[in-house]
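About this split. The held-out portion is used to measure sequence recovery: a designer receives only the structure tokens and must propose an amino acid at every position. Recovery is the fraction of positions where the proposal matches the reference. Here is one held-out target exactly as it appears in the evaluation file.
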């Protein structure tokens, strides 16, 4: 259609053929090419079918040469009468496999131009159809461009063969990393074992009654990811100011009671420790927004502009709805609003392909029970949060309710929902002077 309208479709038949020819001449180049090029970046159908076949053969350890490729094309049902002749021609046309990565770069560049053109057409249609507000059209346009920048398709049906390959790639990456779990560590080893870390595209909900330490445990995770793992972290705080958050982070990083930071009553040693902690914290890529009127769309738009984003923390869900409402909510409309927000947060986690930690208040239902530990049912008045979340962690401290508790600083992270596996209780130690948590087996005086 584009060619009929006089538009020249961006693609290079020569470069595509040279990539295929290079693979046929020297199969040793296949691993390098696989890192640079996906099958859907070929414009020619036959080139795409051949490359997909090679991709599959490589994944399953099948020897790659012209004869085996033709055989596998038969097996996969993509063989055509001219395939044998075509393979011979592209081998003859390709002088050497030495320049294969340059050929692959040309193929990829043309594919990106094609996808950019498709996105531009879709954005154009959005504008001129006149359906919906400008803000929603801008949001859709940003989403499409962001997906291209991340090297992902903007949607549509994907052949299962390419998904299988991505799963294999993820497994190989996990195996080679040496980690016992695939996600970003929370800094709490026992919790990591149960939820396998904070994984890409997951919505992780941390739920508790006020004062239990929701913000504290989320900041623990953000600080560990930023300082120990050198990850890029975005924190959206709808309740506390940037200065309050950074004060808490400094207290935890320097292991100096937060009260001392607030009053400035510090010894010479503590001033040195806080100075060192400030330098380390300044070297991290942790970004904070404390605008209390942010919507999910605002957060999503900001996150798209952060290069190499690894983790998002939001404190906390119910404030997002109330901040943007401008009026009081009935129970029914409040429930619906929070349900909508939780759904948008899950979509945001998938789109950004990063874990999103969202804090949530629990209902007062647990206050009337003898056992005041949080349950999934305590979330239900907030609509579909339980359904949208991949992991739900409830926090409980007996010392909060029972002033005569044997160990007032014993805390529990109760994994109430876990799409990846087990649920159960992880014991933690609450460090009130630092408003922080640590694993039970680790003592804070060992961590300096």
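Reference sequence for scoring:
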């Amino acid at each position: 259609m584009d060619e009929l309208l006089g538009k020249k479709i961006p693609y290079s038949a020569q470069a595509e053929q040279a990539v295929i020819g290079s693979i046929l001449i020297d199969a040793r180049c296949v691993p390098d090419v696989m890192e640079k090029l996906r099958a859907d970046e070929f414009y020619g159908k036959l080139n795409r079918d051949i490359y997909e076949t090679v991709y599959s053969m490589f994944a399953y350890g099948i020897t790659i040469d012209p004869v085996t490729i033709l055989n596998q094309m038969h097996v996969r049902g993509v063989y055509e009468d001219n395939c044998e002749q075509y393979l011979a021609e592209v081998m003859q046309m390709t002088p050497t496999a030495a320049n294969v990565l340059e050929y692959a770069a040309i193929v990829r560049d043309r594919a990106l131009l094609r996808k950019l053109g498709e996105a531009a057409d879709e954005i154009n249609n959005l504008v001129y159809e006149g359906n919906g507000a400008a803000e929603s059209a801008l949001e859709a346009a940003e989403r499409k461009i962001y997906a291209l920048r991340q090297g992902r398709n903007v949607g549509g049906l994907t052949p299962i063969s390419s998904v299988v390959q991505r799963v294999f790639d993820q497994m190989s990456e996990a195996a080679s990393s040496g980690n016992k779990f695939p996600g970003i560590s929370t800094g709490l080893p026992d919790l990591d074992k149960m939820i396998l870390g904070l994984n890409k595209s997951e919505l992780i909900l941390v739920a508790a009654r006020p004062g239990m330490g929701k913000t504290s445990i989320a900041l623990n995770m953000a600080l560990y990811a930023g300082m120990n793992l050198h990850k890029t972290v975005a924190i959206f705080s709808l309740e506390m100011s940037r200065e309050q958050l950074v004060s808490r982070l400094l207290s935890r990083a320097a292991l100096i009671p937060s009260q001392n930071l607030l009053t400035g009553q510090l010894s010479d040693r503590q001033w040195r420790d806080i100075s060192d902690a400030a330098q380390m914290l300044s070297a991290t890529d942790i970004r904070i927004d404390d605008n209390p009127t942010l919507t999910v769309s605002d957060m999503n738009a900001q996150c798209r502009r952060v290069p190499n984003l690894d983790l998002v923390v939001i404190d906390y869900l119910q404030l997002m709805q109330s901040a943007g409402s401008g009026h009081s909510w009935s129970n029914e409309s409040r429930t619906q609003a929070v349900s909508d927000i939780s759904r948008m947060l899950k979509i945001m986690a998938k789109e950004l392909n990063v874990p999103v930690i969202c804090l949530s208040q629990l209902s007062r239902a647990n206050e009337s029970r003898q056992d005041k530990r949080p349950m999934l049912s305590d979330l239900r008045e907030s609509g579909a949060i339980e359904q949208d979340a991949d992991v739900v962690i409830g926090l409980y401290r007996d010392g909060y309710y029972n002033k005569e508790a044997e160990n007032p600083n014993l805390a529990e992270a109760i994994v109430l929902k876990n799409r990846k596996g087990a649920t159960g209780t992880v014991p933690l130690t609450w460090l009130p002077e630092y408003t922080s948590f640590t694993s039970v087996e680790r003592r804070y005086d060992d961590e300096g």
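Annotator remark: Residues 100-129 form the longest helix (30 residues).
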